[in-house]
Amino acid sequence: MQQAERGTRSLRSSYQRAPGGSVYLDIQMLWGMHYLTKAGWSYRVTELAGGSHSKKSSHYRGVSFDVDYINGVKVGRGNPHLRGFMWKCRQLGAREVKGPGTAGHSSHVHVEW
User: DSSP string covering 37-71, please?
Assistant: First the structure.
């Protein structure tokens, strides 16, 4: 985020399957993240351009982020904020939003522009 704030490329992870290098974070995604906060949502981002994902992961293109806490509550089927958060992400232009109930996303929400 600090690199994106300065208008420079953000570093990608370089362990396991992560390709290393850097990428510009998508401006629409960044505005979406900003407007989520402005709309009253608090959330913890665990992955932007980093992490170890599949080879063609959208994280490595700088167009997605993962969240593991929403409004102070761990993401899971019992999170009372989950559906509203996911709906708001879609309303703000996210083309893909995956969370509990989607394979591989039981403990986090994946949001992609």
Answer: HHTT--EEEEESS-S---TT-GGGGT-EEEEEEET
